Amino acid sequence: MDETNKGRSLLAPQYLKIWIMVLAVLALVGCTGLSKTATTKQAQHKQGSETQRKLPKVELSKSLVYEILLGEIARQRNQPEIAAQAIMRAAQESRDPRLVERAARLAVFAKRQDDAIKAAHLWVELEPDSPQPHETLGALLAVKGLMDEASSEFHVFLKLHGDNLQRAFRRISKVLRQTPDRGAAIGLMQSLVSLHPKEAAAHLALARLAGVDVYKVAIAAVNYSLVLRPDWETAALYKSHLLLATKRFTEYRQFSQTYLDDNPSANRLRVYFARGLLDQGDHEAALKQFKEVVAQTPKDGDAAFAVGLLSIQTKEYEDAETYLKQALKISPANDQARLYLGQLAIERKHYKEAINWYQSVESSQLRFEAQLRSALAMAGGGDVDGADKHLDGLEPTSEKQRVNRYLTKEQILREAGRLDEAMAFMNEALHELPENKDLLYARALLAAQLNMIAVHEQDMRRVLAKDPKNANALNALGYTLADQTDRYKEAYDLVEKALKLKPGDPYILDSMGWVQYRLGKNDEALKYLRLALTKRRDAEIAAHLGEVLWVTGDKDAARSVWDRALKDSPDNDVLKGTLKKFNP
């Protein structure tokens, strides 16, 4: 082979990889005996970027190069044990802290705990004034259960971090959460906190480590952090989390509201509080908090969007339109806002306006949904046949889109009063997709409207067979059995299961109130129905509450509930039926 061929063979990919590794070794170790011209600019940059570390002058021996290359090749070939052992030998020979650090990390990855501790000890010996090796050794010792030795390392780590104890305690807390013995870890942290009793961050770190599992320790620690720093929002957020996660809802609301009264600009906590209120089903209280966020941060499109959605939920349509348009002005690409503005227009019976909003949606992910809603708007405006034709012209690209088109057509036929036609259509849809839960659920609801109780129950039971924790299906079946049969005990059991799955849901609370009414427990019924109506201003809930109030003799209260519901929903069939029944 001539010289030209030799040169070409050395440039083959496998040789390039080896030479790249060699250059990396040279740059890493910074060996003696190398001229400055032999150092690449990249290596110079790497050396310059190192912090002020006292690095040894290392003789680049054959054995050192071999161990480093062996370790790197083994690492690339996913042989962590070989890699860890090779780099450990290189670290011990060179005593270069960079190689020692790498050896410790590779040993951890290879699950060679003793080697990792050995490497970390060497790292501490070589760089005793650097916080990182003490943190690493402390963590490894704590995981192994050697808490006294770990404590010593963390003491040094904290001393070296004297100018930023908040960060240091946060890191220790994070490390100790990985230890198997939580009790021993908490004890270690308590000993560290006792050395810095006036450091609020230390107490918060202890609270985070104890967490929900050791609530008494956690809440005491976070409370003390707030004594030391009453306006510290991070600590307030964690206390709110503890209270919410342990379902101390009354304390959660009292603390969050009091803190926000004292610290009105604490928007992180305000948003967290609002989301917690939403999870509890208290839309009006959540809306109040989100409005305050928007008032303080008028350029926050997400907050304005959230207020718009909640305003729709609470039927404050003018506010909803204002906030959704504000969100759209801040973020013109927010097609979700256009969808909800269309929904809002339908709620207000502005059908042409709704169609315009839907037609302006450009997002490929939302375009199909927008076209389905356009059909609903067309039907709402009286053009049911046009809506049907519009749906037929859509081409779904997935089963989900196909199902949603079926559901939209069923809704259009049902709302037009063509219930028998809607049932026939749903039968055809289920013939094509017989196991689809959404179609089964929709047909079951339709069957209940048609007093086809056997079909309703059959379909809901099929849904529950596929999804036993489907709270909506449990609730719907329980409500129907209470409303249209005398199987009240069975209805109660179903709704009770649903309520355990979604304890704050206003519709399930309404069903439980209705079941209690059917069982003759009017006081219990009123309790659930009143709670449901405070969470959701809904015409059907109002109809039920008014009926129980009427039959228990409080006719003035019943009229008041019904009158308010009539203003919001004058066309609701359940409400109109209830008023006709009692003729108030």
List keywords for this structure.
584 residues; mainly alpha; 76% helix
What does this structure look like?
The chain is an all-alpha fold. It has a domain at 15-127. The chain has helices at 3-10, 13-29, 41-49, 62-76, 80-94, 97-109, 113-126, 131-144, 147-160, 165-176, 182-194, 200-210, 215-228, 233-245, 249-262, 267-279, 283-296, 301-313, 317-330, 335-347, 351-359, 367-380, 384-392, 399-415, 419-432, 437-449, 453-466, 471-484, 488-501, 506-518, 522-535, 539-551, 555-568, 573-582. The longest helix has 17 residues, at 13-29.
Flag low-confidence runs. Answer: 1-51
Percentage of residues assigned to helices: over 70%
Query: Radius of gyration over alpha carbons?
Result: 34 Å
User: Major beta sheet, specifics?
Assistant: none
Task: Give a summary of the structure in a few sentences.
The protein is mainly alpha-helical and 584 residues long. It has helices at residues 3-10, 13-29, 41-49, 62-76, 80-94, 97-109, 113-126, 131-144, 147-160, 165-176, 182-194, 200-210, 215-228, 233-245, 249-262, 267-279, 283-296, 301-313, 317-330, 335-347, 351-359, 367-380, 384-392, 399-415, 419-432, 437-449, 453-466, 471-484, 488-501, 506-518, 522-535, 539-551, 555-568, 573-582.
